[in-house]
Amino acid sequence: MVDHTTVLIAGAGPAGLVLGNLLQAQGIGTLVVERASREQVQTRARAGFLGPNTARILTEHGLAAGMLHKGRSHGVCAFRGEDGEFELDYSTLGRGEVHTVYPQQDLVTDLVAEYLDRGGEIRFGSTVTDVDASTATIRYRDERGDGVATGRFLAGCDGGNGVTRQAVPGPRLTQDHGVSWLAVLAEAPQSMAAVTYAVHDDGFAGHMARSPGVTRYYLQVPPGDDPGEWTEERIWAALDTRMRTEEFGQLKKGPIVERRIVRLRSEVLDPIQHARLFLVGDAASSISPSAAKGANLAIMEAELLASALISALRHDDERPLAAYSRTCLPRIWRAQEFSRWMIDLLHPQDDDFHRALRRARLHSLRDSRAHQDFFAEHYVGI
Ligand SMILES: Cc1cc2nc3c(=O)[nH]c(=O)nc-3n(C[C@H](O)[C@H](O)[C@H](O)COP(=O)(O)OP(=O)(O)OC[C@H]3O[C@@H](n4cnc5c(N)ncnc54)[C@H](O)[C@@H]3O)c2cc1C
After folding, report:
1. For the chain: N or C, fewer Cβ within 10 A?
2. Are the beta carbons of 93 and 374 closer than 8 angstroms?
3. Domain map of the chain by residue range?
């Protein structure tokens, strides 16, 4: 049997779920095919910092109840290095905007519930195995066997390791930034009020709030390290050293409930569309988490694609769809550029010359209002 819908969506992450919700709200039929179980997608802890454009999209489209109820406004970050610590109150810099801290798994849980309420259908546990962009057809496999689904349009929202991106011909611009992080979740309250970035000769360390009882930490580790080699004691000892806790106060410690290696990589497809297939989020471009842009880009692109599909399906105007890549790519590249800027700022360099340059950039960020405004605008915006 072949399932048919208007817009077929591969992947139930932030990209696919925002897109599905916006289309269902307009009475446009959608079907989401998702490899993982509902439980898995609703417990995958990843992003947490939502920018103001994301908050606007969620609010305007009736998807923000959970974020408004449980999310926390965040407008200060701190930098620690060999010259001490300074804070930037970015809510008073640049455009005066802030982040909302709301864990991605909570957002995904809200989006799944709302999408189902709007009459959408998700096939959990169904893996897309093959894609035909010219007919907007996918083949998928689930516990019942093989299936086929078609749509008038197909949205590839199946992340950086998905299948749909393989059906888009064209160049892939990739960059391995040569840095790996151990991403850790600790069942512990945040230790500092602000996001804190620590630059140390041993490597970068980061502290980010997630929810009142859970904090994310990052530790730069040698590429190829095995997360299993990082015991709780070793993690807290490295964080103490790099966060200079003897000088700035102890960390609030607790059990480490997740540790994974994240290799800082970027990949941008150009174009991000082919025939009836349109890529959204990590499927279109992967970005290192150094500037917390991935989920924000995914949700921005989902809104743009929803609006273009509504023009095509409701007003018989396919021009916004034809321009989808051209509209998204400059924004993707600005996010990539700032993400790379953050990598250069936060990581120690092997040679003295580059070490001195990095230190000078931190001094400039500490002392120059113009530099701070640049940082604030790019840190929260896309
Ligand atoms: C440690 C970490 C911290 C991060 N912090 C931030 C942050 O603070 N702010 C931020 O903006 N971003 C952050 N990100 C990035 C962010 O999590 C991603 O950019 C975001 O999840 C992208 O959303 P997406 O919907 O495009 O893809 P995904 O969330 O990856 O969703 C893709 C979905 O497709 C499904 N899928 C994959 N293959 C198939 C298949 N063959 N068939 C069917 N389904 C399939 C997957 O199971 C998944 O559910 C972070 C990432 C990491 C790893």
Report:
1. N
2. no
3. 2-73+100-174+265-340, 178-264+349-380
251 alpha carbon, distance to own chain's centre = 26
142 burial type by CB count under 10 A (0-12 exposed, 13-18 middle, 19+ buried): middle
The pLDDT confidence band at residue 270, using thresholds 50, 70 and 90, is: very high
Rounded distance from Cα 250 to ligand 1 centre (Å): 33
Q: Per-residue pLDDT tens for 136-173?
A: 999 999 999 999 999 999 999 999 999 999 999 989 99
**Mean pLDDT taken over the chain:** 96
If one looks up domain 2-73+100-174+265-340 in CATH, what number appears?
3.50.50.60
Q: Residue whose CA is closest, atom 29 of ligand 1?
A: 13
How far, in whole angstroms, is CA 182 from its chain's centroid? 17
- 275 pLDDT higher than 90: yes
Q: Using CB atoms within 10 A of its CB, is residue 209 exposed (0-12), middle (13-18) or buried (19+)?
A: buried
Q: Is 10 close to ligand 1, i.e. is its CB under 6 Å away?
A: yes
Indicate whether residue 289 lines ligand 1 (CB < 6 A): yes
Q: Using the mean position of ligand 1's atoms as its centre, give its distance from the Cα of residue 282 in Å.
A: 6
103 lines ligand 1 (CB under 6 A): no
One-letter amino acid at 198 equals A
Over residues 188-205, the pLDDT tens digits come to: 999 999 999 999 999 999
Q: CB–CB of 358/349 below 8 Å?
A: yes
What would the mean pLDDT of 310-327 be, rounded to a whole number? 98
Q: 308, 282 in Cβ contact below 8 A?
A: no
Phi, psi of 370 (to 5 degrees): -60, -40
CATH of domain 178-264+349-380: 3.30.9.10
Cβ-Cβ contacts under 8 Å for 367 (sequence gap 6 or more): none
| Ligand 1 pocket residue status of 293, Cβ below 6 Å | yes
